[in-house]
Write a structure and sequence with these properties.
TIM Barrel; single chain; two-stranded parallel ribbon; 486 residues
Length: 486
């Protein structure tokens, strides 16, 4: 029998993860066009209703573009000014010992309208500069092609991914950046948390849902277009960059039954299937059979070109990446205390504590997730988001004692090690938000994840000064010892 692993692999990829729209800023500089994220208005906590999912209407887009909402704040347009401060930030990542840094390319920085005849050279050069800076420190870029940054031009012209036309524009964009960065980037992802389309179609694919008659039909048709585009991008990546690895990305929600009542168990099984559907298509190259019934019962008919199934089958992903923040618990009976989640819900699990935002903290759930993924697919795994959003207090001397963040990460990394001992092929870990950035779900700055504090508040006030939290030195030690000292 093969000897089980006792620790993290020698070349394990430790690092951190970000997204262009939450980080870069410079939304209207050097030829960049507007993206879906640039349209998201900040809503103060006391005014939020209906959870975090914000669907933008045609009327809102028209008002924003006509300047009628100029008094509102659009935090993702400004981020934390990584666009002008990337050298400073990358130097801090290097000081922590990062082996990899996950970043997304903002599609509308390369093709301002999404379907332009020629790419924007200034946008291409910016990412050249970022990748060169990373390589100066021996840090590998892990690049996401689409991280909630659909060019607004594609929304206006095609209603985003609802139209098959967008596949060709995406593959043109993918081919452009593959050719440009073929000697600089060897780890790629296609769509960030592709399952977001079912929760927030505008966020996930630039789809304005009030422009369609059948929401569910449109969502799954748009997803089909993304699946095909992902497979074609995988094909292009392998052709253009021999030896590169390209993967998919899922917001994984390991879902438990509230009790051993078979009805609860079946409900949790169904929820897990609906979550794993996306990786089933990406990794196995075909729609799983359980979706046939779901489509029939919901009157969903996926329109496919004759070659679509062949394309999906021929070009599966090389590895599976995912975000993991919490687990969910479901009950077949209505009622019970609800638990908050990152656009997801569920009932409270009495065995788990929760974060400041009500997310249920479940380190063992990460080990369960890793084992279930590896049992199901037998492909390498990469945790590309995991972290704790929390309120941080700056002391009078400028220090930030974020022991709660260290505790969260320590417990999750310990469970990663256990999963590796279980035989899981885990190739890397990028904690979410190694530097404080604008929250995806709420556009807040006060919901902080970073090892590096950024002086910026929810109202956009602050100096943008960077400073190290206690977790900075802790994570530096974790990386230096390859996960042996937690």
């Amino acid at each position: 029998m093969p000897k089980s692993s006792q620790g993290f692999p020698e070349h394990f990829l430790w690092g951190g993860a970000t997204a262009a729209n939450q980080l870069e800023g410079a939304y209207n500089e050097d030829g960049k066009g507007l993206s879906s994220a640039d349209m998201v208005v900040y809503v103060p906590k006391e005014k939020r209703t209906g959870g975090h999912a914000i669907e933008i209407t045609s009327e809102q887009i028209d008002k924003i573009l006509s300047g009628k909402l100029d008094h509102e704040r659009f935090p993702k347009r400004h981020g934390i000014d990584f666009y002008h401060r990337y050298k400073e930030d990358i130097a801090l990542f290097a000081e922590m010992g990062f082996k990899v840094f996950r970043i997304s390319i903002n599609w509308s920085r390369i093709f301002p309208n999404g379907d332009d005849a020629q790419p924007n050279e200034a946008g291409l050069q910016f990412y050249d500069n970022v990748f060169d800076e990373l390589h100066t420190y021996g840090i590998e870029p892990l690049v996401t092609l689409a991280h909630y940054e659909t060019p607004l031009g594609l929304t206006q012209k095609y209603n985003g991914w609802a139209s098959r036309e967008v596949i060709g524009h995406f593959t043109n964009y993918a081919e452009t950046v593959f050719r440009r960065y073929k000697n600089k980037v060897k780890y790629w992802l296609t769509f960030n948390e592709i399952n977001m389309m079912t929760i927030s179609p505008f966020t996930g694919g630039g789809v304005v849902i009030d422009r369609v008659q059948n929401k569910q039909q449109t969502i799954y048709q748009a997803l089909h277009h993304q699946f095909v585009a992902s497979a074609l991008a995988t094909k292009l990546c392998h052709e253009i960059i021999p030896g590169a690895m390209i993967g998919c990305m899922l917001a994984r929600m390991e879902t438990y039954p509230a009790t051993c009542n078979p009805e609860d168990v079946r409900k949790s099984q169904h929820e897990n299937q609906m979550n794993l559907f996306f990786t089933d298509v990406h990794a196995r190259g075909e729609y799983p059979s359980y979706m046939t019934r779901y489509f029939e019962e919901n009157n969903i008919v996926i329109e496919k070109d004759a070659s679509d199934d062949e394309i999906l089958k021929a070009y599966p992903v090389d590895y599976i990446s995912f975000s993991y923040y919490m687990s969910l618990t479901v009950s077949s009976e209505l009622g019970g205390d609800r638990a908050e989640g990152n656009l997801f819900g569920g009932v409270k699990n009495p065995y788990l504590k929760a974060s400041d935002w009500g997310w249920q903290i479940d380190p063992v759930g990460l080990r369960i997730t890793l084992n279930n993924f590896y049992d199901r697919y037998q492909k390498p795994l990469f945790i590309v988001e995991n972290g704790l959003g929390a309120y941080d207090k700056v002391e009078e001397d400028g220090s930030i004692h974020d022991t709660y963040r260290i505790d969260y990460l320590r417990q999750h990394i310990a469970q990663m090690k256990e999963a590796i001992k279980d035989g899981v092929d885990l190739i890397g870990y990028t904690s979410w938000g190694p530097i404080d950035l604008v929250s995806m779900s709420t556009s807040e700055m006060s919901k902080r994840y970073g090892f590096i504090y950024v002086d910026l508040d929810d109202e956009g006030n602050g100096t943008l000064k960077r400073s190290k939290k206690d977790s900075f030195q802790w994570y530096k030690q974790v990386i230096a010892t390859n996960g042996e000292v937690l």
